[in-house]
Amino acid sequence: MSTSVTTFVPESHADSHHEGHHQKQNFFFTYIWSVDHKMIGLQYLWTSFAFLLLGGLLAMGIRYQLAYPGVEVPLIGRLLPSTIATDGIILPGGYNMFFTMHATVMVFLVVMPLLIGGFGNYLIPLKIGAGDMAFPTLNAMSYWLYVVSGIIIVASFFVPGGAAAGGWTAYAPLSSTAAYNQTQLGQSLWCVGLFINGLSSIAGATNYITTIINMRAPGMTMFRLPLSVWALFITAWLLLLAVPVLSAAAAMLTTDLNFGTTFFAAQGGQPLLWQHLFWFFGHPEVYIMILPAMGLVSEILPVFARKPIFGYKAMVWAMVAIGFLGFIVWGHHMFVSGMNLTLAAAFSVSTMIIAVPSAIKTFNWMGTVWRGSIEFTTPMLFALAFVSMFVIGGLSGIFMASTPVDLFVHNSYFIVAHIHYVLFGGSLFGAFAAIYFWYPKMFGRMMNDTLGKIHFFATFIFFNLTFFPMHNLGLGGMMRRIADPTVYDHLRALQPINVFVSWAAFGMGLSTFIFLWNFIWSLRHGKPAGKNPWHSTTLEWTVPSPPGHGNFETTPTVYNGPYEYSVPGMDKDFLPQDEKAPEGARLEVH
Amino acid sequence: MNMNKTLTKIFWLSVLLVAACATDALAGVRDSNLYWAPECVTVGGKRIDSLLNFIFYLTGAVFFLTQIVYIYYLVKYRKRPGSKAYYSHGNNKLELIWTAIPTAIFIGLVIYSNRLWSELHSEPPADAVKVDIVGYQFGWDMRYPGADGKLGKVDTKLYSTENKFAIVPDDASGSDDFSSTELVIPVGKPVHIYLHSRDVIHSFYVPEFRLYQAAVPGRTIAWVWFETTKTGNFQLACSQICGSGHYNMKAPIRVVTQEEFDKWQAGKIAAKAAETQSAAAPSDPVLVAQRNKGEQ
Amino acid sequence: MSTAALAAHETPHAPPRTAIFGMTIFLASEAMLFAGLIGGYIVLRLSSPAWPPSPQYPKLPILLTGINTVFLITSSFTYHFAEAAVKKGKKGLFWLFVTVLLGATFLVIQGFEWSHLHHEGLWFNKGGVYGSSFFVLTGFHGAHVAIGVLMILIAFLRQLGGAYTAQNHTYLILAGMYWHFVDVVWVFLYSVLYLI
Ligand code: HEA
Ligand code: HEA
Ligand code: CUA
Ligand SMILES: [Cu+2]
After folding, report:
1. Which of B47, B199, B212, C169 is most buried, by CB atoms within 10 Å?
2. d(CA B136, ligand 3 centre) in Å
3. How many CA atoms are closer than 13 Å to the CA of B242, on its beta-carbon side?
4. DSSP E strands: which ranges in A60-123?
């Protein structure tokens, strides 16, 4: 295997006016316009937490309305803008804003920034043995573009007409015609927000790919990269190639809304063109949200099973396959949209095929715990649950991938169940696992394990109680995106389930506070962590917690793959990547 | 940390998962099938149900097999004093097996699915009852052919408050078409629907029919047909977000016997003829449409 | 070598090879942006019964824009000459200036064309998808050209003070990659919008 490795050779700086900054380390350069990848990662983390609370609050609003349509929202009802509620009672249009913005916030301002912005920034340079990202300034810019996009999207709640209300998929011509949506300004801000968010993603993706290709430490070959880095690498490619298509579509939507162009109009334009462009981005997008979580979980399982990951290369190739196939399955969102029926059948084939790499990954995770020595720490519990929840979400995907079944379940709560099993049970469970796991590295202290476990069990139970019954609601004929199910005869009978689901959702919302409390409390009071509290092999655990500016005292040299646990013939049960295998260690060559 | 405690917890969790499903018993009203879906009343819908059942059992089996093995591993290979993990990087033969088997299953499933798909979308029988269904923000209009049994041609550019159905003015077969705000169809007979929209995308969704199809403005969706098996009252729902009134965009559906349908139809045709004769010219779709055209 | 030493500079500049790699990656993304726009345009055009949809709309000026295209392509060459000059240790100011001039000329002629078509009754909201796609696509491209001209103008101004040497001119290489990319996109746009 070739070791094409370039370390970061600094340019000789003729101008020395930079020198002053790192001496002073003033507040502005440390916390605001920081170019240190770790600080930027933490900025992403904190900001996405704030948006998680907002997205979660909107979800609570959704659940309140569905359980008690037409009943005044307690406490905050009367504070809501008049576009959303009158006399504290949520309006149907306001409900539409709720779920549209709930999804927009969760997808673009929580999951992506948390997993990719937060963990990507924090971990990539540390894990490949680099001092920082390839383009630190671009990195800082990427974060601030994200903040700006978030502000614009949230601000749209308060403009005349209110926020976008056509669903996060913004189907035209509803979204593209002011007379139909009555939220011209809100919808335009939504487009502008996503455009800027896209710039942030593209800047980040460029940085990640360049960094991973060019800045690996000596000995860190591509097939010695930890799987989380592989996952982020492939994710970055998906971002790079899918996001600009959304940007193009959002630009066209903006001009349709404001300048009278007719790209997506019924007469002259093509309403379905929007859907094709959106889903060409949208499907890769869902893998953008799951791949990093898969990568992070693949890191955590071996550590607490004390076993190498099962089938490293199969894992890598499965992700590569997901990356490629992800671009040719978008039509499965459009089986019943009026698209050509034969084309629909073809998309059904590609969709079933793309489930294969996910199957491979699932079996390899099971193979990893097989014959391990499993320790059930909080991060491990979340990682283990991730696998199960992803399987449930993936299997419900198979129902919808079957064209005739989609004829029945399309746009029903069955879809909503699927979404949340893969996105909450998948992406967010992965994120929680990662937070508990890397917290000691980030802050130098452990999170409280008991509180962590309480958080895990509460979330796990309430999560399933919330979202599992949604499968039945969907098959029971409940449409998604309806403000008041009780207007339908056949849904009135299902209303008790809606009430049940809502209370479970409130429970899930509350359990998040256990997490936040633990997170904040442990900053000061957690057990000091030391360099390597989990006895892990990858490079970030060879430096102090938290790592200093510039990461490594000396550029590490890598001798081993990332998952050498329980190697026979060794005293320690793990072999760090930068340690030569001791005499007598029987490493498996693969 | 006490391992037994953790294990007990895991056990209770599995129990809870099952309990989550059981909460659906709250609904208590739907016992015709596993999932409390409303009773299916179309021929095609029953085919979909059997495919749905097939996938349910398939994925159910996959779920329980994988989860049982998984939980068994978690219990069996939990950390115990002196336990040591087995050092292994994987097994290529296994990789091959668990790639090939799902692939084979998926290929089989997609063949089964797409066959049914094309069957459901086969040419509608010529003798089918034809209905033009038009969605708008926020309601539905239905149009049935008059005595000639033919629906007047549609040009989607022509939708206007006078020409609710966008009938092409020089198509005489459109002049006797009658309209309705409820969908009335004879049981046991194929029904061929044409879907249109006047403004944004709406959708025709009837869970009892196991049928969803979007109505796209500017286009005619002409491939949907079905055959009911049972009389009864249902509701047509719009299941595509279409604005603030989306949640309430519904229309009654009555599936009636052939005799009842004939009677209803004859009444409607007669009413329409009377209306045309009383020479309230502006409400004649042909004239209105022509006048509209003149104005443009 | 210590990675900490590197980060001592608050914003260390990536070495040229890395920067060029990054630019290539970024341009792949830009290509997808235009692929989205052009793909959408092609779909709309193929589903339109006639093009232009109605004879009342003006045709696009093939000849004038053809000449303009020649200007833009020439500017790619002049930029190349500038780079070659710098590599040889010369300043390359003349060629940089010519490039800026050509780029600006392109923009001016495009602007003239916009206003001309506007008078003839074609605009964002006039002429259906014909007008929509023409103005949005050329608008997007024009914005890219403007950014490119700005980048080269900056290079020119910096080079007045002799900022780039034969060994050290990464910025020139990056701006050049961007500029050539914008030209290539234009060749595509000109073909699909004007010629076919
Ligand atoms: C993280 C996000 C994520 C992920 C990973 C997936 C994964 C999958 N999704 Fe999902 N999907 C969404 C997020 C995601 N989806 C969202 C957000 C929507 C809704 C958008 C909207 O309309 O708002 C959606 C909608 C959606 C639709 C459209 C439905 C409709 O609107 O009518 C379809 C249809 O095919 C689909 C299919 C699939 C499939 C087949 C997979 C597969 O990749 C899953 C593969 C995994 C497995 C199958 C499980 C593990 C495998 C085994 C244990 C092996 C053995 C299995 C068998 C032999 C059966 N998804
Ligand atoms: C990553 C993505 C993500 C996440 C994490 C979530 C999380 C949640 N979602 Fe969301 N959802 C989507 C993505 C996501 N969702 C998408 C893409 C759609 C489709 C939208 C569309 O149709 O356009 C959707 C739609 C959607 C619907 C359907 C709306 C409709 O179609 O009408 C519902 C309904 O129940 C719902 C509920 C919830 C709930 C209860 C949570 C909970 O898990 C949230 C838990 C809350 C927190 C973790 C935050 C902390 C809690 C608080 C700050 C509140 C505390 C206050 C009280 C307890 C009162 N979501
Ligand atoms: Cu019409 Cu929803
Ligand atoms: Cu998809």
Report:
1. B212
2. 8
3. 29
4. 85-86, 89-90
C neighbour chains, 3+ CB pairs within 8 Å: A
Report d(CA A57, CA A513) in Å as an integer.
12
Q: At what angle do helices A184-214 and C16-46 cross, to 10 degrees?
A: 140
Instruction: Provide Rg for chain C, Cα atoms.
Output: 20
Residues in chain B with CB shorter than 8 Å from the CB of A349 are 110, 114
Q: Does C2 touch chain A (CB under 8 A)?
A: yes
Q: Are A393 and A385 in contact (CB under 8 A)?
A: no
Counting ligand 2 atoms within 8 A of each CB, the residue from A416, A462, A487 with the most, and so the one to mutate, is A416
A312 vs B contacts (CB less than 8 Å): 89-90
> Cα separation of A290 and A284, whole Å?
10
Alpha-carbon gap: C12 to the closest alpha carbon of chain A (Å): 7
The H or E element spanning position B109 is helix B92-120
Q: Which two tokens stand for residue A586?
A: 């029987």
Helix and strand counts by DSSP (H, E) for chain B: 5, 10
Stated length of chain B: 296
C33: which 2 tokens?
A: 């942006």
The secondary structure of A42-74 as a DSSP string is: HHHHHHHHHHHHHHHHHHHHHHHHHHSTTSPPT
H/E stretch holding B212 reads: strand B211-215
The subunits that touch chain A, with at least 3 C-beta pairs less than 8 Å apart, are B, C
| Tokens matching residue A39 | 């600080």
Which of B207, C15, C106 shows the shortest CA–CA distance to A405? Answer: B207
The response to whether residue A364 sits with its C-beta less than 6 Å from ligand 1 reads no
Are the C-beta atoms of A386 and A459 separated by less than 8 Å?
no
Picking from A253, A46, A231, the residue whose alpha carbon sits closest to that of residue A150 is: A46
In whole angstroms, how far apart are CA A229 and each of A4, A306, A364, A532?
Answer: 17, 20, 18, 19
Rg, Å, chain A Cα set: 24
Q: Helix or strand or coil: residue B20?
A: helix
- Tell me the C-alpha distance between A201 and A232, whole Å: 12
pTM beyond 0.95: no
Give A444's contacts (C-beta < 8 A, 6+ positions apart): A528, A529, A544, A545, A546
CA A37/CA A140 separation, integer angstroms: 8
pLDDT (tens, 9 = 90+) of chain B, 296 residues, equals: 445 555 555 555 555 555 555 554 444 444 456 678 899 999 999 999 999 999 999 999 999 999 999 999 999 999 998 888 999 999 999 999 999 999 999 999 999 999 999 999 999 999 999 999 999 999 999 999 988 888 999 999 999 988 899 999 888 888 889 999 999 999 999 999 999 999 999 999 999 999 999 999 999 999 999 999 999 999 999 999 999 999 999 999 999 999 999 999 999 999 988 888 775 545 555 444 544 444 33
Q: Are A39 and A30 in contact (CB under 8 A)?
A: yes
Instruction: Supply φ then ψ for residue B204, to 5 degrees.
Output: -90, 115
Q: Which two tokens stand for residue B26?
A: 């709250």
Residue C11 and residue A207: Cβ atoms within 8 Å?
A: no
